[in-house]
Amino acid sequence: MVAVVGSEPGTWVVLQTESGARATTLAGASGPLRGVTGFEVVVWGAAERPGVFRVDRFAVRAVDGQPALDGTVRRAGSGWTLQPADGPAVPLPSLQDVREGARIWLVRAPDGRVTGHGVISAP
Predict the structure, then answer these.
(1) What is the pLDDT of residue 28?
(2) d(CA 26, CA 47)
(3) Which residue in 46, 71, 75, 104 could disulfide with 84, CB within 3.0 to 4.6 Å?
(4) Is 92 exposed, middle or buried, given 0-12, 13-18 or 19+ CB atoms closer than 10 A?
C-alpha cells in the first residue's frame, strides 16, 4: 500500500506491506507513486538501509480492493489497448480523458465495463 505522510512541504512516500512493515522510498518512482496513494502496488528496487527502499519501478495491482491493470495506452488500428509492462495488450474502450502514451490504472467489472481509471503519468 502506498501512503504519503508528513506535512507540506515536507512529505514523503511510504510503502506499507500486508504485515504492517513500512519503508520510506527514495527518488526514482516516488513522484509517480504519489499519484497512487492508497493503492496496492508491487515494487521492484532494493533496500538501501533499514526502513528505506529505492523503488526502480512499480505496478498497480488493486484499487479499493478491486484488481487493477496498469499499463500504457496505445493505438491499435481504430481502437485502443492498454499495454502492461508484464503481459499482453488488453483492448480498451474510448476513454475521453486519456491520451495515447499515458500510463494509466484501470479497474473493470466482471462484465468488462471500465468502473474506474486514472492517469499515473502523462505521455
Answers:
(1) 54
(2) 10
(3) 71
(4) buried
